[in-house]
Amino acid sequence: MLTSEQISAYFENGYLLVEDVVTPEQLRRMQDITHEFIDRSRHVTASNDVYDLDEGHNSETPKLTRIKLPHKQHPFFWDVVKNSGITEVLRQLVGPNAVLQTSKLNAKAPGGGAAVEWHQDWAFYPHTNDDMLAFGVFLEDVTEENGPLQVIPGSHKGPVLDHSSAQGVFCGAVDPTDSDFHIDKAVTITGKAGSMSVHHARTLHGSAPNVSDRARLMLFYECCAADAWPLMGGSAYIQRLSQQEQWNDFLDRMIIGDPVLQPRMKEAPVRLPYPPAADVSSIFKTQKSGGAKSAFI
Ligand SMILES: O=C(O)CCC(=O)C(=O)O
To answer: 61-100 burial by CB neighbour count: b if 16+ within 10 A, else e?
Structure first.
């Protein structure tokens, strides 16, 4: 699926755009399911285990920041990561044994859908090695206007920046004035529906509010090599499981290959996502309640 040039570019720059990664049928099915979920959110008045609501959400104009853990909400979202072009890209970039870390469908609503402040995913969940990445499947066209993902090329080879705020808590965002944050190097990833962005877990990335009249629907799958074991962090629900449930959950998240019970250790800079912000139920809530400074004003 990927050419050797694309693979080299990913490892060199820490990001990639892959076009037509799913078939038109797979894309249509994902769009239909997503719109059914958005429609059902009309009756929801507060964020819950499925929806993260955006400001101004109501039954007439549903406004979501996120549908949480889509692979658990609908079997097709799991089927797609297991059996599509995405699976092949995963095999090429991460190797034969890979597991889903988490999934989310960021649904930036038209006319303001919240910004995601600049951060490194690695700061949320450091592992024993950093063979970890995030796929962002475009369920609609992504343009300059609807809050595209932006990345800093090469930042996956640099430091893990401080993600704490003036409140002294982990706010899930870097300080825009940090001397290691070079926003002038930012690259925007746009493309047609059915394309997919890839970014390494240490790549600095963020996205501006959606100033268009179209939703920016992006389905994120965050994946890692099966021999990368968490040092800390990860989805909140996993922390609440018993050991047996954690193991069952891990098996349920295997995308390709087999579990690897000898963690591979690789030197990589690490910071722990502590102390937590008041509300850690999504990145939007972590950044807001943690007092993140915005780079988008
Ligand atoms: O939705 C986006 O633009 C970025 C999402 C992201 O980085 C995240 O949810 O961690």
So the answer is: ebbbbbbbbbbbbbeebbebbeebbbbebbbebbeebbbb
Domain-located, residue 103: yes
Are 293 and 173 within 8 A, CB to CB? yes
- The residue segments making up the domain with residue 243 are 4-151+183-265
Ligand 1 atom 1, closest CA: 106
Helices 75-82 and 85-94, axial angle in degrees (round to 10) = 50
**Residue 22 belongs to some domain of the structure:** yes
Ligand 1 midpoint to CA 206 (Å): 6
Q: Which atom of ligand 1 is nearest to the CA of 106?
A: 1
Q: How many domains does the chain have?
A: 1
Enumerate residues lining ligand 1, CB below 6 A.
Answer: 104, 106, 116, 121, 149, 205, 207, 218, 283
Starting at the edge strand found earlier in the chain, the sheet holding 205-207 runs 116-119, 205-207, 149-151, 187-189
Pocket test for ligand 1, best of 205, 280, 287 (most atoms within 8 A of CB): 205
Which residue from 283, 269, 295 is spatially nearest to 160, judged by alpha carbons? Answer: 269
User: What is the domain-level CATH number for residue 245?
Assistant: 2.60.120.620
∠ CA 147-136-34 to the nearest 5 degrees? 80
Model pTM score? 0.97
Q: What is the pLDDT of residues 78-123, one digit of tens each?
A: 999 999 999 999 999 999 999 999 999 999 988 878 899 999 999 9
In this structure, is residue 175 part of a structural domain? no
Q: CA-CA distance, 73 to 144, in Å (whole number)?
A: 30
Residue pLDDT, tens place only, 38-78? 999 999 999 999 999 998 999 999 999 999 999 999 999 99
Give first-to-last CA distance, the chain, whole Å: 39
State how far the Cα of 153 lies from the Cα of 186, in Å rounded to an integer.
7
Q: What are the structure tokens assigned to 266, written together?
A: 């690789």
CA 245 – ligand 1 centroid, Å: 27
